[in-house]
Write a structure and sequence with these properties.
By secondary structure, the protein is α+β, with helices and mostly antiparallel strands. It has one domain. Helices cover 56% and strands 18% of the residues. It has five helices and six strands; from the N terminus they run E-H-H-E-E-E-H-H-H-E-E. The strands form two sheets. A four-stranded antiparallel sheet has the order 1-6-5-4. Strand 5 and strand 6 form a beta hairpin. The protein starts with a strand and ends with a strand.
Length: 177
Amino acid sequence: MKVYRELNLLEDEKVIKKLNIAALVIMAICYGVLLLPPFNQHNFQSISFLLEIGAIIISFLVIVIIHEGIHGIFFKIFNLKGQVKFGFKNGMAYATSPGSLYPKWQFFMISIAPFVLLTTGLLLIMNTWPYAWLRLLVAAHSGACAGDFYWCYLLLKTPKNLLVEDTEVGLTFHEVG
């Protein structure tokens, strides 16, 4: 196998800055969308300001853990023998399966699964348990998915015949015979 391209996301400061800006833009857009019908049809309940701030912080930390856990589950679904590691570096939580190779479509699923599953779940919760801070939580999680969206974008731009190797710092694309 020949290396097509290597990406080091965790140590590339330019990419990290761009992803942080993208995260803020995505968060703002998502929050704006959640202010439109059908999301704002409820009379949102409010709890005291400090409780809301605490709930947002704790909920976001739980969401990050669940998000990375979903990546880990999908790594295992597509490669039962692969090892999954979790970490935190440069302000980013991550799940990785170093040395594991995946067809592009599988890595796309691994990358996008937490956004799809958590956003759907949070919107359902928001519909039945209408606290205003849930809007911010949905928007914050969507923004935090900027790195996953970046992986998906890169996967869509690369040739079809590649295998994706997950590394502890990014991705390596391998050309297949």
